[in-house]
Specification:
The chain has helices spanning 11-22, 62-65, 126-138, 149-160, 181-193, 241-245, 291-305, 335-340, 390-402, 407-412, 429-442, and strands at residues 2-7, 27-33, 38-39, 58-59, 69-73, 76-80, 85-88, 93-95, 98-101, 105-107, 120-121, 141-145, 164-168, 197-199, 204-210, 213-219, 224-226, 229-232, 236-238, 250-251, 254-255, 268-270, 277-278, 285-286, 319-323, 326-332, 345-353, 364-372, 378-386. The chain has 443 residues and is of the alpha/beta class. The protein has three domains: 2-105 and 237-305, 3-Layer(bba) Sandwich (FAD/NAD(P)-binding domain); 120-234, FAD/NAD(P)-binding domain (3-Layer(bba) Sandwich), CATH 3.50.50; 319-442, FAD/NAD-linked reductase, C-terminal dimerisation domain (Enolase-like, domain 1, 2-Layer Sandwich), CATH 3.30.390.30. The strands form nine sheets. The protein has a five-stranded parallel β-sheet, covered by helices on one side. Helix 1 packs parallel to helix 7 (291-305). The chain is globular, with a radius of gyration of 23 Å. The relative contact order is 0.11.
């Protein structure tokens, strides 16, 4: 029986276990992870409030053990690629015929003076969530360094809990990694209206402390923000150290793989945050630390262990989030990213009501779609609206990109409508955006 060793217990590792378990071949599968209990990382901001027990936000180990795999709580420290062995910190040795590195990522810790003070935390692990619960319960003022999705989500949860929150973002606006400027600015204004202070174009240069705890945050202009605790959320770093020590090719974006997610060493794959991604649209290396990307990559790696010779087409980076009453998201390349890649694009914009105009509770859905001028193929899009429905909009855009949909396809696709559930029959948001793009092309 062939032996498969998986290093990492996040979504990539778990999905590989599930796919192999459901496959036509029998494997001896061992999963090694260094966290006794994994938290659902995306849910950590929402676990800050203590209304639900911590375990509600955690991933049960039965999602590994109930699917035929041996679970080992240990740290993989060495890979002998010649002998096909993995050695752990406790001295255990596991033979493998196939090895998958799903070692994930860790929070980036910026080189800011006193960043290691006791009441400064990241937003990643179960322990981070427990610390945030305690800090939020004891402190009245919080400074969040970083205005990406996680930073904004933490700010919203803390503000709703009565904490005085300030976001400090070095870019001109929050959320610029995933949203075009006008959408990002709209969210920024909404967050401010809800009482969260937002400082943009601003750098944190140091943390001020007393008795090992933060008391303030020093800014580049010399001012000091008072703080009872601070959150640092400025991105993640792929965990590639084990791979590098073992002779695998790595880059700043992660472990380097081919189109089949194979590394440069035979029978070793990489998937998830630790692996370098490529863009579905451009084919170039890109970022993409989303749990859904880890799942998609894991399915490809598992298929190839099963001998199916399956290619990974690249990441579309479909994403969504919320900020108080707003929900927002994007897929593929937003407009500024497409232009930064040197692509010749045309965009289409629409504002459509979420239900028939005579119904109560109508709100506007703002949609921007990005098309290549040559071939008129959809390569990206973003949505901003009230209510928590944006993920469905982003899913449609992502699937349309994946299937190579064009302006003409979106002008003629068939959709559902209902007075309480969608815009009136003539006013579909994607169709209107496609029509706007076509009008620009014909102008």
């Amino acid at each position: 029986m062939e032996k498969v060793v998986i290093i990492g217990g996040g979504p990539a590792g778990r999905v590989i276990v599930h796919v192999l378990h459901a496959g036509p071949k029998d494997f001896q599968v061992t999963l090694v992870k260094d966290e006794p209990v994994n938290v659902n990382r995306c849910a950590v901001p929402y676990g800050i409030v203590s209304q639900k027990p911590v375990d509600k936000f955690c991933i049960p180990n039965t999602l590994v053990t109930d699917f035929g795999a041996e679970l080992v709580i240990d740290t993989a420290e060495e890979i002998d690629t010649d002998a096909g062995k993995v050695r752990t910190a406790s001295g255990k040795v596991f033979d493998y015929d196939h090895l998958v590195l799903a070692t994930g990522s860790r929070p980036f810790v910026p080189p800011i003076e006193n960043v290691d003070l006791e009441n400064i935390t990241s937003v990643r692990s179960r322990n981070d969530m427990i610390r945030l619960r305690s800090l939020a319960a004891e402190g009245n003022k919080c400074v969040i360094v970083g205005g990406g999705y996680i930073g904004v989500e933490v700010a919203v949860v803390l503000a709703q809990s009565g904490v005085d929150v300030t976001i400090v973002e070095m870019m001109p606006h929050i959320l610029l990694a995933t949203m075009d400027d006008d959408f990002a600015l709209a969210v920024e204004r909404h967050v401010r209206e809800k009482g969260v202070k937002v400082l943009t174009d601003t750098r944190v240069v140091a943390f001020a402390g007393n008795d090992g705890k933060v008391t303030g945050v020093k800014l580049g202009d010399g001012s000091l923000l008072e703080a009872d605790f601070a959150v640092v959320s400025v991105g993640v770093v792929p965990n590639t150290e084990l791979a590098a020590r073992s002779g695998l090719e790595v880059s700043k974006l992660g472990i380097v793989t081919d189109d089949y997610l194979r590394t440069n060493v035979a029978n070793i794959y990489a998937a998830g945050d630790c692996a370098r991604k490529k863009s579905f649209v451009t084919g170039k290396p890109c970022r993409g630390e989303f749990g859904t990307n880890a799942v998609f990559m894991a399915k490809v790696a598992a298929a190839n262990i099963l001998g199916k010779n399956k290619k990974f087409p690249g990441v579309i980076n479909a994403n969504a989030s919320t900020a108080f009453e707003l929900s927002l998201g994007s897929a593929g390349l937003i407009e500024k990213a497409a232009r930064a890649e040197g692509l010749d694009v045309v965009t289409g914009y629409s504002e459509v009501l979420n239900r028939y105009p005579m119904m109560d509770g109508t709100h506007t859905i703002r949609t921007r779609l990005v098309f290549e001028k040559s071939g008129r193929r959809l390569i990206g899009g973003s949505v901003l609206r009230q209510g928590h429905c944006t993920a469905n909009n982003v899913d449609f855009i992502s699937f349309a990109i994946q299937m190579g949909a064009t302006i003409e396809d979106l002008l003629t696709y068939q959709y559902a409508t209902h007075p309480e559930l969608a815009a009136k029959p003539s006013d579909n948001t994607y169709m209107f955006a496609a029509r706007d793009a076509l009008a620009k092309l014909n102008a």
